[in-house]
Design a protein that fits this description.
single chain, alpha+beta, five-stranded antiparallel beta sheet
């Protein structure tokens, strides 16, 4: 009787679990991603394939799971080079001592040597088969350096012998290949087949027979490795309890993500607090709940808070009532402090809080925050003049500038800095300030992110622009500019916010003119000359605007064409980009493009600054007079349309007026003639036609047009 041989397994599965002390929630995602990518890269470096590599992270463990991993490296044939042909063989073709020594060193006969052509010439060589190494052996080698070499945000050293650094002390290692232990060691911890479903401190060690049993074991303990599934379970529990309380859960920004990475086995519970704390502004109450306690608030369908909260525990405790009571006691003390601070702040009007700003430094070279508000008032006057703001709004804006930073000295804002501006709204309303002024104060820091909410009120819109202008211009004036790796004052974010507000509100004004006027307010603090700083500021706003336009998915060449035509009016530049994007294939636009392109080509290589205005007295051809008449005939109408922001009709006028005559002119009139006076006058006519469009709308010669458009026109 013959027995069948079991087929050799071609792939294996690998599991690595790094058990450690509690990891900060903000580091879990990045470490998980780094570990997965580093492991995948290490496998690739060894020519080992894997069907799938996944990574999981929780507060106390990081897990790598690789499925369908090849059991060994592939065998490969390598070519080993020896001495050059000239040194390996003499003139008669006999092998020299060098050739024989090379063959002997590699245990082959000299007759087996081959000649290989290389970039350096002909060399003797031999081919050798290298057997692929076993994957288990390679995993033992690559795991320890991969783990200890991870780029971690913060490291700890706790092992006196190896001095290995990791985010938190490593307490256990589980490493399995299918159902066998893979032996390796990290920081003195040797791999095993035991894990801790709870924490290491619990001492509840469990044996894992095979990889599939590992996942079943954790599932039985309600530990969820997958962060998305963990988050979904939290959301489900939050909504279920919220529905029982006939209320809606308020999920503060970042709170859900934070608690997801604080727990492995989420368990949501409900607690309550004294109704008297509902006297606090909603934002203060939410901050008190989420910032320190990581609790979720509940509100009615009308948006009114109720005196209850939801917390997320890691596993269901034996005595939930005691845990709830402890949470409520800690929260009671926190809310009592917040209520005390709020009541104390209400005793002092914003106008008196403002006096304290004299002792609060904004920047060593730019003075106190009080001086900043004074500058903001002066900037407000210039902004209102540039944008023709009504007098009533201008007065409210002036008052908002005065009070804008006063809440920085309040008790609540010192406790919760994220509520700056928000508390200014409450204190302004309590002090009887105009509602528009109060609302403007609350909106001055918007938008807080690139996609953040923008100010909704007029006063808030202008106040936000003014605050950002003061920060940007003040920093540039004293020589603080963002670099590729550093922007500690958030200047880029302020610039992006400025551009977003301008575009959202279609604010059309001369940016260069406003910058120069505002810059004069900084006087003696300017480290270099004013014109240099003004130039740097213009470049900065061009860069921020370009970044925003590209973010809105406009073609880069269209953006560059408009910017080349000038970016003194950000909203106007945006309108031009939108126009060109929408009419790229229209006949009238292609005609305008061709006029600009042809005139630009003839002007290449000439000094544009040296070319003056065309003089009709120097014309010697009737076509010169016709072309000049066509130019003059469309010029005034073109400029009027541009001044009114009607770039579409301006483009139609330009193309229809000049396309035909320009092409006839190029076909029949030689521009670069020997007569210098005649040549320069014809170049001047080309420049006038070209800059009429490029100087007011866009330099269309920068567009990357297809073959079809080039052939058609």
């Amino acid at each position: 009787m013959t027995t069948k041989r079991r087929p050799q397994k071609r792939t294996l599965d690998f599991l690595l679990e790094i058990g450690c002390e509690e990891v900060p929630s903000g580091c879990v995602v990045s470490i998980t991603q780094e570990m997965r990518s580093s492991f995948a890269a290490a496998l690739s470096g060894y020519d080992i394939t894997a069907k799938e590599v996944v990574g999981y992270g929780t507060p106390r463990r990081f897990v790598l799971y690789a499925k369908g991993v090849s059991v060994k490296q592939p065998d490969k044939t390598v070519t080993v080079l020896g001495p050059s042909r000239a040194k390996a063989f003499d003139s008669a073709g006999r092998p020299t001592q060098q050739a024989c020594g090379f063959a002997t060193a590699h245990n082959v006969d000299v007759s087996e040597l081959e000649i290989h052509q290389t970039p350096r010439g002909e060399y003797v060589a031999l081919k050798r088969l290298e057997q692929g190494r076993d994957t288990r052996e390679l995993l033992t080698e690559l795991i320890p350096p991969m783990v200890t070499g991870l780029p971690l945000p913060k490291n700890m050293r706790w092992d006196g012998g190896t001095r290995v650094a990791f985010i938190r002390p490593i307490r256990w290692l589980l490493a399995l290949v299918d159902d066998t232990v893979l032996r390796c060691e990290i920081a003195g911890v040797v791999s095993q087949r035991e894990t801790y479903p709870r924490s290491f401190a619990s001492g509840q060690q469990k044996r894992v027979s095979a990889i599939k049993d590992y996942f079943k074991l954790l599932q039985a303990e309600s530990a969820i490795l997958d962060a998305k599934k963990r988050e979904q379970k939290i959301v489900t529990q939050l909504n279920t309890i919220g529905a029982k309380e006939n209320a809606k859960v308020i999920v503060e920004e970042g709170l859900l993500e934070e608690v997801t990475h604080l727990v492995e086995a989420p368990c949501v519970f409900c607690g309550d607090f004294a109704p008297r704390f509902l006297e606090l502004p909603k934002e203060v109450l939410l901050c008190s709940l989420s910032k320190y306690q990581r609790l979720f608030a509940l509100q009615t369908s009308r948006g009114k808070l109720i005196p209850k909260f939801l917390g997320v525990l890691d596993g269901r405790p034996l005595r939930l009532s005691e845990v709830r009571k402890n949470y409520q006691q800690v929260l009671e003390a926190r809310l009592a402090d917040s209520l005390f601070f709020y009541r104390e702040d209400l005793k002092t009007p914003l106008s008196l809080m403002r006096e304290r700003l004299k002792h609060l430094i904004f920047h060593q070279e730019l003075g106190s925050v009080y001086e900043k508000t004074e500058r903001m008032k002066a900037i407000a006057a210039l902004v209102c003049e540039s944008l023709c703001v009504p007098d009533e709004t201008a007065e409210r804006l002036k008052r908002a500038c005065e009070l804008s930073k006063s809440d920085l000295t309040s008790h609540v804002v010192r406790e919760f800095p994220s509520l700056q501006g928000v508390m200014g709204l409450y204190y302004a309303m309590a002090g009887g300030e105009d509602h528009a002024v109060a609302s403007g104060i609350s909106e001055q820091y918007l938008p807080k992110t690139q996609q953040g909410i923008l100010p909704r009120t007029q006063v808030g819109t202008f106040l936000s622009l003014i605050d950002k202008l003061d920060l940007i211009i003040g920093c540039f004036a004293v020589g603080i500019m963002p670099t590729g790796s550093a922007d500690p004052y958030g200047i880029r974010r302020a610039g992006s916010g400025f551009v977003s507000i301008v575009l959202h509100n279609h604010l059309s004004f001369s940016l260069g003119g406003l910058l120069e006027k505002v810059l004069e307010l900084y006087g003696a603090v300017i480290k270099t000359d004013m014109q240099t700083v003004a130039g740097q500021l213009r470049e900065f706003f061009v860069e921020r605007s370009r970044s925003r336009f590209l973010q809105d998915r406009f073609r880069y060449d269209v953006v560059d064409a408009v910017i080349a035509g000038g970016l003194d009016d950000i909203a106007g530049a945006f309108a031009k980009i939108k126009l060109i994007k929408g009419v790229l294939n229209e006949d009238y636009f292609l005609k305008s493009w061709k006029v600009v392109e042809r005139t630009n080509n003839i002007l290449k290589g000439t000094s544009s600054e040296a070319i003056g205005a065309p003089s009709p007295e120097c014309f010697s051809e009737s076509l010169e007079h016709e072309l000049f008449s066509a130019y003059k005939g469309c010029r005034n109408g073109f400029l009027e349309l541009c001044a009114g922001g009607d770039y579409k009709r301006a483009t139609e006028l330009y193309g229809s007026s000049l396309y035909g005559i320009v092409h006839v002119f190029f076909d029949k009139v030689l521009i670069n003639v020997d007569d210098q006076r005649l040549r320069e006058n014809r170049l001047a006519l080309m420049k006038a036609i070209n800059t009429l469009y490029t100087g007011h709308i866009a330099d269309l010669s920068l567009l990357v047009m297809g073959k079809e458009q080039n052939e058609q026109f």
